[in-house]
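Posting this for the archive.
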Amino acid sequence: MSDRDDDDYVGYRRPPRHGQFRKGQSGNPRGRPRKSKEAKLLIERSELDELQRVVLDQEISVTEGGRKRTRKAIDVVMRSQTAQAMKGHTVAQRDVLRRSQELEARDARREANARQREKDEAQERIQAGRDTFRHMVEFKAKRQKEWDEALAQGREEPDFPWPHPDDILLDRSREQWHVRGPFDASGVSLYRWIMAERNLAFTQMVLDARARSTPKNAWLEFWSLIWNSHDVILPLRWQVGERYDRELFGHMIAPMRDLREAHEENRRSAEKWKRLSGNDRRDKDTYRIVNGIMAPILAKGGYKSLAQFERAADEHGGEPPWSRLE
């Protein structure tokens, strides 16, 4: 056997055995490193690019239709090339068509990206709404447990009573929720004011009915609308609701002196809670809400807005005329 047939021979295309690739083992076990997306986007600033921007953005004077105008250099170049293309210059036509196609492609991508963003944002809003609804379902169950524990201990309510579980209204078909009443202690004064206004309207309705020998249905309907519009937005345990007949009967048979005193007490209570709730300071949002609630009621008395009603009240010493109710 010659030296060249020896397995240990080292020469052209015959590296030492210890330096040869082993069967089944990669010569580059880590593989080719991947290029990150960030690396593709991190392109170093180029002096040539900066110079090109300066040149293309510079303002130059041109004459168009006998009048001098100032345009950017890139604007002039593109207008000139387009003009050459319209004259039949083949190279200019090719470049203009290419740019037009690239522009349409970019516009299509922008539109597709915008639609996708809108779709993603809408989906995020839907998911956020579902998450919030699911949280409110769990929150209502938690509040119910706290109220049950308080009642089992002989207490009227838990240490933190708001919101009451019965006032957490859930619309499972639409996955929507609403809290009728204060969400926490900071909102109690507002709803106390609403309740005082409800009571004031209720006693006013009874006083007006008892003061007239033949009460007019329009007046009763008016005051009924007022106190009802306040009653329905109160917490369930503060609503008149099923107690209406009993409350009305009690007011109707009460001595007029007691009824007037109750009415005056309700007025003072309304003023007090209005002040404590901060609603004695008129702001646009509060005015818009009150105007929206009162609009259908005021319309029955011939008033188009709360502002018109307030002006009439000032002109008549706090007792505005109700033309359609007389």
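Confidence is low (pLDDT under 50) at residues 37-42. Residues 185-325 form one domain.
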